[in-house]
Amino acid sequence: ENGSALSYFNPLNFITTPDVIKNSIILRLFQKLRIELLKNSIVQLTKLL
Fold first, then answer.
1. Could you report how far apart the first and last alpha carbons of the chain are, in Å?
2. CA–CA separation, 49 vs 38, rounded Å?
3. Using CA atoms, how far apart are residues 35 and 39, in angstroms rounded to an integer?
4. φ, ψ at 44 (rounded to 5°)
5. Alpha-helix runs per DSSP H in 1-49
6. How far is residue 49 CA from its own chain's centroid?
7. Which residue has the higher pLDDT, 14 or 27?
């Protein structure tokens, strides 16, 4: 099917996306955020030392 990957990221389609898939996407985003926060805090710590 053509353009199905793009429509998957459509906000309107996201509302109708099953919760399981939604949760896994949100989890992945949170993990990326956590890693970024960790990196930043490590950088801050090394500046203090």
1. 55
2. 17
3. 6
4. -60, -40
5. 4-8, 11-16, 19-48
6. 32
7. 27
Stated pTM of the model: 0.50
Higher pLDDT, 37 or 13: 37
Q: Give tens-digit pLDDT for 11-23.
A: 777 677 788 888 8
Asked if pLDDT for residue 30 goes beyond 50, the answer is yes
* Residues in CB range of 7: below 8 A, 6 or more apart: 13
Between CA 11 and CA 37 the distance in angstroms is 26
Residues 14, 22: contact at Cβ < 8 Å? yes
Place of tokens 């109708």: 16
Rounded Cα–Cα distance for residues 21 and 26 (Å)? 9
Task: Report the chain's mean pLDDT, rounded to a whole number.
Answer: 80
